[in-house]
Amino acid sequence: MGIATTERLGQAVPLEDLRGFIGEFGAEAALLSVSQEARAKQILEALPESEAASGVRVFGGSLAFGSEESRRAASKRFLSLDLRETADAGVGMLQRENSAG
Question: Which of the chain's ends, N or C, has fewer CB atoms near its CB within 10 Å?
């Protein structure tokens, strides 16, 4: 499994573009840093359809998940308030799953 590739997108990427980007790079997962709670809510609402269409799991972290309500809404998709911890947790999770499967 190659985890070395990291691509970065700018702010306020339309969800349609995010789906296309994920599919284009053949990503196994996407880790998103979201700073606004309203944007996190939009992304979380769109994820089931996006994941079903692409087969790519999406996780998030950072400031948008500061409230208990937002972390509860994100459920297992929330990894950490800290971006580096979010990335490390996501990579670790995928490595464990791939070595077990």
Answer: C
